[in-house]
Amino acid sequence: MSVLLVEDDPSIALVITAALEAEGFTVDCCDSIAERDRLLKRQSYSALVTDVMLTDGDGIETIGAVREAAPRMPIIILSAQNTLDTAVRASDTGAFEYFPKPFDIDELARTVRQAVGNAEAAQSGSDESPVAGLPLVGRSAAMQAVYRMITRVLRNDLTVLILGESGTGKELVAEAIHQLGHRKTGPFVAVNTAAIPADLIESELFGHEKGAFTGAVARHAGKFEQASGGTLFLDEIGDMPLDAQTRLLRALQSGKVRRVGGREEIAVDVRIIAATNRDLEPMIAAGTFREDLFYRLNVVPITLPPLRERSDDIPALARHFLQLAAGEGLPRHSLSDQAEALLSRQPWRGNVRELRNFIYRLALLVREDRIEAEAVAPLLLQTARAESNDGPVKLDAAVEQWLHDQRPAPGTVYDLALAAFERPLFLAALRETQGNQLRAASLLGINRNTLRKRLTELEIDPAEAVR
Question: Where does 395-467 sit in CATH, by number?
Fold first, then answer.
Protein backbone atom coordinates (compact mmCIF):
# COMPACT_ATOMS: atom_id res chain seq x y z
CA MET A 1 0.00 0.00 0.00
CA SER A 2 1.39 3.38 -1.01
CA VAL A 3 0.54 6.94 0.01
CA LEU A 4 1.32 10.15 -1.84
CA LEU A 5 2.18 12.93 0.62
CA VAL A 6 2.13 16.52 -0.67
CA GLU A 7 3.64 18.81 2.01
CA ASP A 8 5.97 21.79 1.56
CA ASP A 9 7.27 21.80 5.15
CA PRO A 10 10.17 19.30 5.24
CA SER A 11 9.97 18.72 9.00
CA ILE A 12 6.24 17.98 8.92
CA ALA A 13 6.73 15.76 5.86
CA LEU A 14 9.42 13.80 7.69
CA VAL A 15 7.22 13.19 10.76
CA ILE A 16 4.19 12.14 8.68
CA THR A 17 6.29 9.84 6.52
CA ALA A 18 7.72 8.09 9.59
CA ALA A 19 4.25 7.63 11.10
CA LEU A 20 2.78 6.20 7.88
CA GLU A 21 5.74 3.89 7.30
CA ALA A 22 5.24 2.59 10.85
CA GLU A 23 1.69 1.67 9.73
CA GLY A 24 3.12 -0.37 6.85
CA PHE A 25 2.70 2.16 4.04
CA THR A 26 5.29 3.15 1.49
CA VAL A 27 5.34 6.93 1.07
CA ASP A 28 6.23 9.15 -1.86
CA CYS A 29 6.63 12.79 -0.91
CA CYS A 30 6.57 16.01 -2.92
CA ASP A 31 5.94 19.70 -2.23
CA SER A 32 4.10 21.00 -5.32
CA ILE A 33 0.95 20.51 -7.38
CA ALA A 34 2.98 19.93 -10.53
CA GLU A 35 5.02 17.13 -8.95
CA ARG A 36 1.88 15.65 -7.41
CA ASP A 37 0.20 15.42 -10.80
CA ARG A 38 3.32 13.92 -12.38
CA LEU A 39 3.48 11.19 -9.73
CA LEU A 40 -0.25 10.43 -10.06
CA LYS A 41 0.18 9.90 -13.80
CA ARG A 42 3.12 7.59 -13.18
CA GLN A 43 1.44 5.24 -10.69
CA SER A 44 -1.65 4.67 -8.55
CA TYR A 45 -1.76 5.32 -4.80
CA SER A 46 -3.87 3.96 -1.98
CA ALA A 47 -4.42 7.45 -0.55
CA LEU A 48 -3.41 11.10 -0.94
CA VAL A 49 -2.43 13.27 2.03
CA THR A 50 -2.08 16.90 0.96
CA ASP A 51 -1.48 20.30 2.48
CA VAL A 52 -3.53 23.26 1.18
CA MET A 53 -0.89 25.95 0.63
CA LEU A 54 1.83 24.48 -1.58
CA THR A 55 4.85 25.96 -3.35
CA ASP A 56 2.92 26.50 -6.61
CA GLY A 57 -0.68 27.02 -5.56
CA ASP A 58 -3.73 26.00 -3.56
CA GLY A 59 -3.98 22.24 -3.03
CA ILE A 60 -7.76 22.31 -2.57
CA GLU A 61 -8.49 24.23 -5.78
CA THR A 62 -6.76 21.56 -7.85
CA ILE A 63 -8.37 18.51 -6.23
CA GLY A 64 -10.63 18.22 -9.29
CA ALA A 65 -7.65 17.10 -11.36
CA VAL A 66 -6.83 14.48 -8.74
CA ARG A 67 -10.40 13.19 -8.88
CA GLU A 68 -10.17 12.78 -12.63
CA ALA A 69 -6.91 10.86 -12.34
CA ALA A 70 -7.94 8.67 -9.38
CA PRO A 71 -11.69 8.93 -8.66
CA ARG A 72 -11.71 6.26 -5.93
CA MET A 73 -8.58 7.33 -4.08
CA PRO A 74 -9.35 8.73 -0.60
CA ILE A 75 -7.97 12.19 0.12
CA ILE A 76 -6.95 13.58 3.52
CA ILE A 77 -6.41 17.35 3.64
CA LEU A 78 -4.11 19.21 6.04
CA SER A 79 -4.17 22.96 6.58
CA ALA A 80 -2.75 25.71 8.78
CA GLN A 81 -5.54 28.02 7.55
CA ASN A 82 -7.84 27.01 10.38
CA THR A 83 -11.11 28.63 9.39
CA LEU A 84 -14.60 27.28 8.79
CA ASP A 85 -14.20 28.31 5.15
CA THR A 86 -11.19 26.00 4.76
CA ALA A 87 -13.02 23.15 6.50
CA VAL A 88 -16.02 23.60 4.19
CA ARG A 89 -13.83 23.80 1.09
CA ALA A 90 -12.14 20.57 2.16
CA SER A 91 -15.53 18.95 2.68
CA ASP A 92 -16.73 20.15 -0.71
CA THR A 93 -13.95 18.17 -2.40
CA GLY A 94 -15.32 14.95 -0.90
CA ALA A 95 -12.20 14.56 1.20
CA PHE A 96 -12.21 11.59 3.56
CA GLU A 97 -11.00 13.79 6.44
CA TYR A 98 -9.69 17.28 7.16
CA PHE A 99 -6.97 17.95 9.77
CA PRO A 100 -6.24 21.51 10.95
CA LYS A 101 -2.64 22.06 11.99
CA PRO A 102 -1.31 21.24 14.52
CA PHE A 103 -2.80 17.73 14.54
CA ASP A 104 -2.27 14.45 16.35
CA ILE A 105 0.13 12.44 14.19
CA ASP A 106 -1.18 9.11 15.51
CA GLU A 107 -4.74 10.12 14.68
CA LEU A 108 -3.65 11.05 11.16
CA ALA A 109 -1.97 7.67 10.68
CA ARG A 110 -5.07 5.83 11.95
CA THR A 111 -7.27 7.89 9.61
CA VAL A 112 -5.13 7.05 6.59
CA ARG A 113 -5.31 3.37 7.48
CA GLN A 114 -9.11 3.62 7.86
CA ALA A 115 -9.46 5.53 4.59
CA VAL A 116 -7.50 2.94 2.67
CA GLY A 117 -9.49 0.12 4.25
CA ASN A 118 -12.76 1.81 3.35
CA ALA A 119 -11.88 3.34 -0.01
CA GLU A 120 -15.42 2.87 -1.31
CA ALA A 121 -16.59 5.35 1.32
CA ALA A 122 -14.78 8.22 -0.40
CA GLN A 123 -17.33 10.69 -1.80
CA SER A 124 -17.11 12.49 -5.15
CA GLY A 125 -16.56 16.23 -4.94
CA SER A 126 -19.39 18.73 -4.96
CA ASP A 127 -19.67 21.47 -7.59
CA GLU A 128 -21.33 23.78 -5.10
CA SER A 129 -19.29 26.73 -3.90
CA PRO A 130 -19.22 27.68 -0.23
CA VAL A 131 -21.61 30.32 1.03
CA ALA A 132 -20.14 33.81 1.43
CA GLY A 133 -20.24 35.54 4.79
CA LEU A 134 -19.69 32.51 7.01
CA PRO A 135 -20.99 33.40 10.48
CA LEU A 136 -18.46 31.66 12.75
CA VAL A 137 -15.14 33.18 13.82
CA GLY A 138 -12.23 31.44 15.56
CA ARG A 139 -9.16 29.33 14.86
CA SER A 140 -8.68 27.74 18.28
CA ALA A 141 -8.44 23.97 18.58
CA ALA A 142 -11.86 23.93 20.23
CA MET A 143 -13.46 25.65 17.23
CA GLN A 144 -11.59 23.40 14.80
CA ALA A 145 -13.39 20.45 16.38
CA VAL A 146 -16.71 22.27 15.85
CA TYR A 147 -15.89 23.02 12.21
CA ARG A 148 -15.01 19.39 11.56
CA MET A 149 -18.31 18.22 13.02
CA ILE A 150 -20.21 20.76 10.91
CA THR A 151 -18.62 19.50 7.70
CA ARG A 152 -19.59 15.93 8.56
CA VAL A 153 -23.32 16.70 8.60
CA LEU A 154 -23.59 18.90 5.50
CA ARG A 155 -24.38 16.10 3.02
CA ASN A 156 -26.92 14.23 5.16
CA ASP A 157 -30.04 14.84 7.23
CA LEU A 158 -28.86 13.41 10.54
CA THR A 159 -30.42 15.11 13.55
CA VAL A 160 -27.98 17.41 15.34
CA LEU A 161 -28.04 18.41 19.03
CA ILE A 162 -25.99 21.54 19.76
CA LEU A 163 -24.89 21.87 23.39
CA GLY A 164 -23.35 24.89 25.05
CA GLU A 165 -23.76 27.74 27.48
CA SER A 166 -25.94 30.73 26.65
CA GLY A 167 -24.26 33.09 24.23
CA THR A 168 -21.83 30.59 22.67
CA GLY A 169 -23.44 30.82 19.22
CA LYS A 170 -25.62 27.72 18.98
CA GLU A 171 -28.01 29.30 16.47
CA LEU A 172 -25.06 30.42 14.33
CA VAL A 173 -23.91 26.80 14.11
CA ALA A 174 -27.43 25.72 13.13
CA GLU A 175 -27.54 28.42 10.44
CA ALA A 176 -24.11 27.36 9.14
CA ILE A 177 -25.23 23.73 8.82
CA HIS A 178 -28.29 24.85 6.89
CA GLN A 179 -26.60 27.46 4.67
CA LEU A 180 -23.68 25.20 3.76
CA GLY A 181 -25.66 21.98 3.41
CA HIS A 182 -27.76 20.47 0.66
CA ARG A 183 -30.98 22.02 2.08
CA LYS A 184 -29.74 25.61 1.74
CA THR A 185 -32.37 26.46 -0.90
CA GLY A 186 -35.13 25.55 1.56
CA PRO A 187 -36.36 27.61 4.54
CA PHE A 188 -34.52 27.89 7.85
CA VAL A 189 -37.12 28.17 10.61
CA ALA A 190 -35.96 28.85 14.17
CA VAL A 191 -38.22 28.54 17.20
CA ASN A 192 -37.28 29.22 20.81
CA THR A 193 -39.33 26.64 22.69
CA ALA A 194 -38.64 28.40 26.00
CA ALA A 195 -40.33 31.59 24.75
CA ILE A 196 -43.65 29.95 23.83
CA PRO A 197 -46.37 29.53 26.48
CA ALA A 198 -46.90 25.85 27.34
CA ASP A 199 -50.52 25.93 26.12
CA LEU A 200 -49.50 27.29 22.71
CA ILE A 201 -46.35 25.31 21.92
CA GLU A 202 -48.15 22.46 20.10
CA SER A 203 -50.05 24.96 17.96
CA GLU A 204 -46.80 26.75 17.12
CA LEU A 205 -44.97 23.56 16.18
CA PHE A 206 -47.72 21.55 14.50
CA GLY A 207 -50.29 24.20 13.54
CA HIS A 208 -54.02 24.31 14.22
CA GLU A 209 -57.32 24.21 12.42
CA LYS A 210 -59.85 27.01 12.47
CA GLY A 211 -61.94 26.82 15.65
CA ALA A 212 -59.59 24.38 17.37
CA PHE A 213 -59.55 26.65 20.43
CA THR A 214 -60.60 30.14 21.43
CA GLY A 215 -58.79 32.60 19.21
CA ALA A 216 -58.14 30.10 16.40
CA VAL A 217 -59.95 32.21 13.78
CA ALA A 218 -58.14 30.65 10.81
CA ARG A 219 -56.09 27.62 9.88
CA HIS A 220 -52.44 28.01 10.90
CA ALA A 221 -49.46 26.11 9.50
CA GLY A 222 -47.03 25.20 12.26
CA LYS A 223 -43.25 25.47 12.24
CA PHE A 224 -42.86 21.92 10.90
CA GLU A 225 -44.91 22.76 7.80
CA GLN A 226 -43.21 26.14 7.41
CA ALA A 227 -39.80 24.44 7.42
CA SER A 228 -40.74 21.67 4.97
CA GLY A 229 -37.91 21.18 2.48
CA GLY A 230 -35.48 22.95 4.80
CA THR A 231 -34.32 23.00 8.41
CA LEU A 232 -36.25 23.37 11.68
CA PHE A 233 -34.11 24.69 14.54
CA LEU A 234 -35.56 23.94 17.99
CA ASP A 235 -33.72 26.16 20.45
CA GLU A 236 -33.80 25.64 24.24
CA ILE A 237 -35.26 22.15 23.74
CA GLY A 238 -34.61 21.39 27.42
CA ASP A 239 -37.41 23.80 28.37
CA MET A 240 -40.10 22.05 26.33
CA PRO A 241 -43.09 20.72 28.39
CA LEU A 242 -43.38 16.94 28.68
CA ASP A 243 -46.67 16.75 26.76
CA ALA A 244 -45.13 18.62 23.83
CA GLN A 245 -42.06 16.36 24.02
CA THR A 246 -44.34 13.37 23.41
CA ARG A 247 -45.89 15.00 20.35
CA LEU A 248 -42.47 16.04 19.06
CA LEU A 249 -41.12 12.50 19.45
CA ARG A 250 -44.09 11.10 17.49
CA ALA A 251 -43.49 13.63 14.70
CA LEU A 252 -39.79 12.77 14.50
CA GLN A 253 -40.50 9.04 14.38
CA SER A 254 -43.26 9.22 11.76
CA GLY A 255 -42.21 12.22 9.68
CA LYS A 256 -45.81 13.42 9.97
CA VAL A 257 -47.64 16.06 12.02
CA ARG A 258 -51.27 16.61 12.90
CA ARG A 259 -52.57 20.12 13.45
CA VAL A 260 -54.32 20.85 16.76
CA GLY A 261 -57.99 20.16 16.15
CA GLY A 262 -57.25 18.32 12.90
CA ARG A 263 -57.67 14.73 11.80
CA GLU A 264 -55.36 14.58 8.81
CA GLU A 265 -51.70 13.64 9.20
CA ILE A 266 -49.43 15.81 7.09
CA ALA A 267 -46.08 14.51 5.83
CA VAL A 268 -43.22 16.95 6.41
CA ASP A 269 -39.70 16.88 5.02
CA VAL A 270 -37.51 18.69 7.54
CA ARG A 271 -34.01 18.44 8.93
CA ILE A 272 -34.10 18.81 12.74
CA ILE A 273 -31.41 20.70 14.64
CA ALA A 274 -31.99 21.16 18.38
CA ALA A 275 -30.03 23.12 20.96
CA THR A 276 -29.94 23.57 24.71
CA ASN A 277 -27.81 25.17 27.40
CA ARG A 278 -29.04 22.63 29.95
CA ASP A 279 -27.60 19.26 30.96
CA LEU A 280 -30.32 16.91 29.73
CA GLU A 281 -29.12 13.70 31.39
CA PRO A 282 -29.95 14.84 34.97
CA MET A 283 -33.31 16.02 33.63
CA ILE A 284 -33.91 12.53 32.25
CA ALA A 285 -33.13 11.06 35.67
CA ALA A 286 -35.53 13.56 37.26
CA GLY A 287 -38.28 12.70 34.78
CA THR A 288 -38.50 16.18 33.24
CA PHE A 289 -37.07 15.22 29.85
CA ARG A 290 -37.94 12.10 27.87
CA GLU A 291 -35.08 9.68 27.47
CA ASP A 292 -36.34 8.39 24.11
CA LEU A 293 -36.56 11.95 22.77
CA PHE A 294 -33.01 12.61 23.95
CA TYR A 295 -31.68 9.65 21.99
CA ARG A 296 -33.73 10.68 18.95
CA LEU A 297 -32.20 14.19 19.04
CA ASN A 298 -28.68 13.28 20.13
CA VAL A 299 -27.67 11.55 16.89
CA VAL A 300 -24.82 13.98 16.20
CA PRO A 301 -23.91 16.09 19.25
CA ILE A 302 -21.89 19.27 18.71
CA THR A 303 -20.57 20.93 21.87
CA LEU A 304 -19.73 24.62 21.67
CA PRO A 305 -16.96 25.67 24.07
CA PRO A 306 -17.46 28.69 26.34
CA LEU A 307 -15.42 31.71 25.37
CA ARG A 308 -13.17 31.37 28.43
CA GLU A 309 -11.94 28.05 26.99
CA ARG A 310 -10.96 29.63 23.67
CA SER A 311 -9.55 32.96 24.77
CA ASP A 312 -7.13 32.91 21.82
CA ASP A 313 -10.14 33.63 19.59
CA ILE A 314 -11.17 36.80 21.46
CA PRO A 315 -9.01 39.28 19.47
CA ALA A 316 -10.35 37.96 16.15
CA LEU A 317 -13.91 38.06 17.47
CA ALA A 318 -13.45 41.61 18.76
CA ARG A 319 -12.10 42.79 15.40
CA HIS A 320 -14.97 41.03 13.65
CA PHE A 321 -17.56 42.77 15.82
CA LEU A 322 -15.90 46.15 15.25
CA GLN A 323 -16.31 45.56 11.51
CA LEU A 324 -19.95 44.61 11.97
CA ALA A 325 -20.53 47.70 14.11
CA ALA A 326 -18.98 49.93 11.44
CA GLY A 327 -21.19 48.31 8.83
CA GLU A 328 -24.21 49.25 10.94
CA GLY A 329 -23.28 52.93 11.04
CA LEU A 330 -21.12 53.12 14.19
CA PRO A 331 -17.65 54.74 14.03
CA ARG A 332 -14.87 52.62 12.56
CA HIS A 333 -12.20 51.58 15.07
CA SER A 334 -9.17 49.34 15.49
CA LEU A 335 -7.84 47.74 18.69
CA SER A 336 -4.36 48.10 20.15
CA ASP A 337 -2.46 44.96 21.16
CA GLN A 338 -2.84 45.94 24.82
CA ALA A 339 -6.60 46.35 24.42
CA GLU A 340 -6.88 42.93 22.78
CA ALA A 341 -4.80 41.38 25.57
CA LEU A 342 -7.06 42.95 28.20
CA LEU A 343 -10.18 41.65 26.47
CA SER A 344 -8.62 38.19 26.22
CA ARG A 345 -8.13 38.02 29.99
CA GLN A 346 -11.81 38.59 30.81
CA PRO A 347 -14.07 35.65 31.79
CA TRP A 348 -16.99 36.71 29.52
CA ARG A 349 -19.62 34.73 31.39
CA GLY A 350 -22.13 35.72 28.72
CA ASN A 351 -19.72 34.30 26.13
CA VAL A 352 -19.68 35.57 22.54
CA ARG A 353 -22.97 37.44 22.96
CA GLU A 354 -21.59 39.42 25.90
CA LEU A 355 -18.35 40.20 24.03
CA ARG A 356 -20.32 41.39 21.01
CA ASN A 357 -22.47 43.73 23.09
CA PHE A 358 -19.37 45.07 24.85
CA ILE A 359 -17.57 45.77 21.56
CA TYR A 360 -20.61 47.59 20.22
CA ARG A 361 -20.60 49.80 23.33
CA LEU A 362 -16.91 50.50 22.78
CA ALA A 363 -17.56 51.43 19.16
CA LEU A 364 -20.26 53.84 20.24
CA LEU A 365 -18.47 55.48 23.17
CA VAL A 366 -14.80 55.70 22.16
CA ARG A 367 -13.92 58.80 20.11
CA GLU A 368 -10.42 57.84 18.97
CA ASP A 369 -9.90 55.70 15.87
CA ARG A 370 -7.66 53.31 17.80
CA ILE A 371 -9.07 51.80 20.98
CA GLU A 372 -6.45 51.55 23.72
CA ALA A 373 -6.52 49.51 26.93
CA GLU A 374 -7.09 52.71 28.89
CA ALA A 375 -10.44 53.11 27.14
CA VAL A 376 -11.41 49.47 27.65
CA ALA A 377 -10.65 49.21 31.38
CA PRO A 378 -13.22 51.76 32.66
CA LEU A 379 -15.98 50.22 30.59
CA LEU A 380 -15.09 46.78 31.95
CA LEU A 381 -15.34 48.20 35.46
CA GLN A 382 -18.76 49.70 34.70
CA THR A 383 -19.89 46.33 33.36
CA ALA A 384 -18.64 44.57 36.50
CA ARG A 385 -20.52 47.06 38.67
CA ALA A 386 -23.72 46.56 36.69
CA GLU A 387 -23.46 42.79 37.04
CA SER A 388 -22.70 42.90 40.78
CA ASN A 389 -25.60 42.21 43.16
CA ASP A 390 -23.77 43.88 46.02
CA GLY A 391 -23.42 47.37 44.59
CA PRO A 392 -19.94 48.77 43.81
CA VAL A 393 -17.12 46.35 43.12
CA LYS A 394 -15.36 45.58 46.40
CA LEU A 395 -11.94 46.29 44.91
CA ASP A 396 -12.78 49.96 44.32
CA ALA A 397 -11.49 51.12 47.72
CA ALA A 398 -8.30 49.07 47.39
CA VAL A 399 -7.62 50.45 43.92
CA GLU A 400 -8.21 54.03 45.07
CA GLN A 401 -5.83 53.50 48.01
CA TRP A 402 -3.21 52.05 45.69
CA LEU A 403 -3.45 55.07 43.38
CA HIS A 404 -3.11 57.39 46.36
CA ASP A 405 -0.08 55.55 47.80
CA GLN A 406 1.82 54.82 44.59
CA ARG A 407 1.06 58.01 42.66
CA PRO A 408 2.16 56.40 39.36
CA ALA A 409 3.23 58.55 36.43
CA PRO A 410 0.55 59.38 33.82
CA GLY A 411 0.28 56.71 31.16
CA THR A 412 1.63 53.93 33.41
CA VAL A 413 -1.37 53.38 35.70
CA TYR A 414 -2.98 50.48 33.88
CA ASP A 415 0.15 48.34 33.40
CA LEU A 416 1.36 48.96 36.95
CA ALA A 417 -2.02 48.19 38.49
CA LEU A 418 -2.39 45.01 36.47
CA ALA A 419 1.08 43.83 37.42
CA ALA A 420 0.45 44.64 41.09
CA PHE A 421 -2.75 42.63 41.16
CA GLU A 422 -2.08 39.83 38.65
CA ARG A 423 1.03 38.35 40.28
CA PRO A 424 -0.49 37.84 43.77
CA LEU A 425 -3.70 36.56 42.15
CA PHE A 426 -1.82 33.86 40.23
CA LEU A 427 0.22 32.94 43.28
CA ALA A 428 -2.96 32.60 45.36
CA ALA A 429 -4.59 30.44 42.67
CA LEU A 430 -1.55 28.15 42.52
CA ARG A 431 -1.49 27.79 46.31
CA GLU A 432 -5.21 27.07 46.35
CA THR A 433 -4.76 24.27 43.79
CA GLN A 434 -1.45 22.93 45.21
CA GLY A 435 0.38 24.04 42.07
CA ASN A 436 -1.91 22.22 39.62
CA GLN A 437 -1.90 24.55 36.60
CA LEU A 438 -4.95 22.97 34.95
CA ARG A 439 -7.04 23.46 38.11
CA ALA A 440 -5.60 26.95 38.65
CA ALA A 441 -6.59 27.96 35.10
CA SER A 442 -10.07 26.56 35.68
CA LEU A 443 -10.34 28.46 38.97
CA LEU A 444 -9.32 31.72 37.28
CA GLY A 445 -11.57 31.10 34.28
CA ILE A 446 -8.77 31.31 31.71
CA ASN A 447 -7.15 28.96 29.22
CA ARG A 448 -4.31 26.79 30.57
CA ASN A 449 -1.99 28.00 27.79
CA THR A 450 -2.79 31.60 28.74
CA LEU A 451 -1.93 30.82 32.36
CA ARG A 452 1.38 29.23 31.41
CA LYS A 453 2.27 32.19 29.21
CA ARG A 454 1.53 34.70 31.97
CA LEU A 455 3.45 32.64 34.56
CA THR A 456 6.49 32.74 32.28
CA GLU A 457 6.14 36.46 31.67
CA LEU A 458 5.74 37.15 35.39
CA GLU A 459 8.64 34.77 36.19
CA ILE A 460 6.50 32.69 38.54
CA ASP A 461 7.68 29.14 39.27
CA PRO A 462 4.55 27.05 40.09
CA ALA A 463 6.63 24.70 42.26
CA GLU A 464 7.99 27.55 44.36
CA ALA A 465 4.55 29.13 44.70
CA VAL A 466 3.33 26.27 46.91
CA ARG A 467 6.44 25.93 49.11
Answer: 1.10.10.60
